[in-house]
Amino acid sequence: MPESYYFEDLSLGLTAKFSKTITEADIVLFAAVTGDTNPMHLDAEYAATSIFKERIAHGMLAAGLITKVLGTQLPGPGTIYMSQTLKFRAPVRIGETVTATVEVAALHPEKHRATLRTVCTVKGEPVLEGEAYVSVPSRASLAVRAAE
Q1: What is the average per-residue pLDDT within 56-63?
Q2: Which domain covers residue 66, as residue numbers?
Q3: Helix, strand or coil for residue 44?
Q4: What is a biological process (GO) this protein takes part in (predicted)?
């Protein structure tokens, strides 16, 4: 798989994945960066009284793994996020490995954009699903800029 794709390289069904085990440090750092100190994520006693019975990772922490795929793999460097839908299906617990998968679902050649199916799974089961709409660098656009 190339390190990145130009729009002209994309095809329907093309996929890329990234997996990461979520750690205590990931949750604490995410809370510090975002300011989301919901006790569901940080306080074991509080979380024990919840429907999940234990602390869970921030949903957006798992969703953030999608950006790793978009920005470094598919399409790759130069990709601009334009929109993202998310449906949270299940919690992510400390120590679980999340796999973010991105799949090309539609191509929009007039503006070098793509619609991508995005899903994060734990043990093969979806924890979140959505759709991203991105602007993708193209060889044609680079050639026009180089000629100017």
Answers
A1: 96
A2: 7-23+58-147
A3: helix
A4: fatty acid biosynthetic process
Starting at the edge strand found earlier in the chain, the sheet holding 80-88 runs 15-21, 97-108, 113-122, 125-135, 80-88
What is the distance of C-alpha 104 from the center of its chain? 14
The answer as to whether 43 is a domain residue is no
For residue range 101-141, what is the model confidence (pLDDT) as tens digits?
999 999 999 999 999 999 999 999 999 999 999 999 998 77
- Number of DSSP helices (H) and strands (E) in the chain, helices first: 5, 5
Tokens of 66: 């999608």
**Cα–Cα separations (whole angstroms), residue 84 to 2, 46, 125:** 24, 31, 20
The answer to whether position 2 is within a domain reads no
Specify if 81 maps to a domain. yes
> HSE-up of 108 (CA within 13 Å, CB side)?
10
Residue 36 lies in a domain: no
CATH code of 135's domain: 3.10.129.10
pTM of the model: 0.90
